[in-house]
Write a structure and sequence with these properties.
Elements: H1 2-25, E1 106-107, E2 110-111, H2 115-128, E3 139-143, H3 149-153, H4 157-163, E4 164-172, E5 180-186, H5 192-202, E6 215-221, E7 224-230, H6 232-245, E8 254-257
Antiparallel strand pairs: 1-2, 3-4, 4-5, 5-7, 6-7, 6-8
Helix pairs in contact: 2-6
Length: 261
């Protein structure tokens, strides 16, 4: 019995080794039972964030599609509207154009311009009243001061300095014409009557050679005094022109010489 055991046991071991060897080489037809499947370990699912909605792009002109709707603009603050000028009615009758005013300014009808400007307007207006063949001679205008006051105005140097602010005279360029027109601006309008009397009493009507004026007159309008010594029609034209420039606002005229008898 011991002998059989000693023989059989090694033989079984050899068979077992051969069997194992066959399993390792894959030549054995013996199928090993499948092992029990193990539960697959799965990771904890991650939470995905939903994508935010993006504004749909506006359709380009080439695509032919409708343009994307744009949000309504907010109302911008506007400035207070300015008043508009009412349009002129083309059917309305045109307004009358006012007549041009004289270049010489007046205050309440009284002449108040610089004497030279008054003389320029006065002589032009007077010549316009005369016929073409009866116009006044060409004149030259001079500034009057205290030294020349007596021959041009009849006022003494002292009276001229006391009463007069400025004065100018227009005389004929040809000495054969007894013709002189003088404008005097007074310092004080209340002295007009006094100065007119001084002029009438002191003016020399014989200052021309061999000729005398036909009419010599002094008249005032406010602070402005006119003295004219000339031919009668010329003197009358100058007086009329002065009255127009003064707006009819004249003081009393003093005719102190009417020619030789």
């Amino acid at each position: 019995m011991k002998i059989k055991t000693a023989i059989i046991f090694p033989a079984l071991i050899a068979v077992a080794l051969m069997t194992l060897s066959a399993c390792d080489s894959g030549d054995s037809d013996v199928t090993t039972p499948p092992s029990a499947p193990t539960a697959a370990t799965t990771s904890e699912p991650t939470v995905t964030v939903s994508p935010t909605a993006t504004a749909a792009p506006s359709t380009s002109p080439e695509s032919g599609g409708e343009s994307a709707e744009t949000p309504a603009p907010t109302a911008a603050p506007t400035a207070e509207p300015t008043a508009t000028v009412k349009p002129i009615d083309p059917t309305a009758a045109p307004a009358e154009t006012p007549a041009p005013t004289e270049s010489v300014p007046t205050v309440d009808g009284a002449l108040s311009a610089e004497p030279g400007k008054i003389l320029t307007s006065l002589l032009a207006k007077a010549n316009a009243l005369l016929p073409e063949d009866g116009a006044m001679p060409k004149e030259f205008v001079t500034e009057i001061d205290a030294e020349t006051a007596k021959g041009n105005t009849g006022l003494s140097p002292d009276d001229f300095t006391k009463y007069v602010s400025s004065a100018k005279a227009a005389a004929a360029m040809i000495g054969s014409f007894a013709h002189k027109v003088v404008i005097i601006q007074l310092k004080d309008v209340s002295d007009a009557s006094t100065v007119k009397s001084l002029v009438a009493d002191g003016f020399d009507n014989s200052q021309w050679i061999c000729v005398f004026p036909e009419k010599s007159v002094v008249v005032d309008s406010g602070s402005c005094i006119l003295m004219v010594a000339s031919r009668k029609d010329w003197a009358d034209a100058v007086l009329s022109a002065f009255g127009e420039l003064a707006g009819g606002n004249l003081g009393g005229a003093n005719e102190f010489f009417s020619g030789l008898e």
